[in-house]
Amino acid sequence: MKFRVSSELAYNVNSPSTLLVNVHAQRLPGQTIIEETFKIDPYIRIEELTAADFETRFIRLEVDAGTLLKIYYQAVVDTSYKVIDRAQLEDVSLMQLDGEVIPFLFPSRYCQSDKLGRLAYKMFGHINNVYEKVLAIVDWIYENIEYASGSTNSHTSAYDTISEWTGVCRDFAHLGIALCRALTIPARYFTGYAYQLNPPDFHACFEAYIGGQWLIFDATRLAPLNGLIKIANGRDAADASIASIFGNVSFNAMTVDCQLIDKDFVSITHQDLYTKAIALTVV
Asked: What is the distance between the alpha carbons of residues 197 and 106, in angstroms, rounded to a whole number?
């Protein structure tokens, strides 16, 4: 499916600063960038970097003080995804995991799986099938954590979310990741553009490694699973921040948009996951 995505960010730069901007759609086997535009106002020299571990595309820029910096990105992206009969997913033991998957079993800054092990096993440890276990985690988060815009901040972790019982998409993703890892299920953070997300914004969810596939789950249920355009993966949001700022810079404004170009779109929602699994990055 083809989507047109765009984002505009504005910052007040109060001292000479460096920014790492992460708004580009990833180039993946299941995600083709047909065209894209990236602009900076005022014009300054930029450098594109690719994170070796996660294929994330960063733009690095040096900005002088006293600048109102505006960043604009637009792209047409063609996404494909794989629909898998959940009955065909076979559990992969820890001994069989590829080395690149192993880091997504460990606790991380926002996903303290080591602190949630007892809770995870009490609630979900009795479920033998790994896929059903992740579905149960996602259902539990949706039913028990209140989604409330502005209720948390950039310091909120999965442990905080389980204590406060509220959060936004970022927090729902972190909690899902932490509970999966506590049960020895590799899980990673996913951030991107999302079709039909209301209000429009960058969106976060997570992927769990099941049956040799990275499968996507979204405990918020705010957007169709096949309407996601990936920007970045990571252990948590620390690896996939939209902008990492080094200096005295204050946020000014942001707009995000994701529009469908193709007309024959059929949404795949959380309810569909009870019969089929979705891998958005595999053809």
From this structure: 30
List the domains of the chain with CATH numbers: 82-231+268-279 (3.10.620.30)
Our CA dihedral for 157, 161, 166, 167, rounded to 10 degrees, sits at 30
pLDDT band at 245 (very low <50, low <70, confident <90, very high): very high
Closest CA to 234 of 5, 90, 53: 53
Interhelix angle for 130-144 vs 117-124, to 10°? 100
- pLDDT of 214 over the 90 cut: yes
Handedness of CA 9, 14, 16, 18 (dihedral sign): negative
CB atoms within 10 A of CB 283: 11
CA distance 119 to 166: 17
C-alpha distances out from residue 229 to 73, 82, 112, 209, 235, Å: 14, 14, 27, 19, 18
In angstroms, the CA 204 to CA 232 distance is: 10
Q: What is the pLDDT of residue 138?
A: 98
Residues 87-124: pLDDT tens digits? 889 888 888 899 999 999 999 999 999 999 999 999 99
The residue-averaged pLDDT of 175-203 equals: 97
Cβ atoms of 151 and 166 within 8 Å: the answer is yes
Nearest to 23 by CA among 268, 255, 208, 180: 255
Note if the pTM is more than 0.85: yes
**Considering only CA atoms, which of 254, 232, 221, 223 is closest in space to residue 188?**
232
Distance of CA 238 to the CA centre of its chain: 11
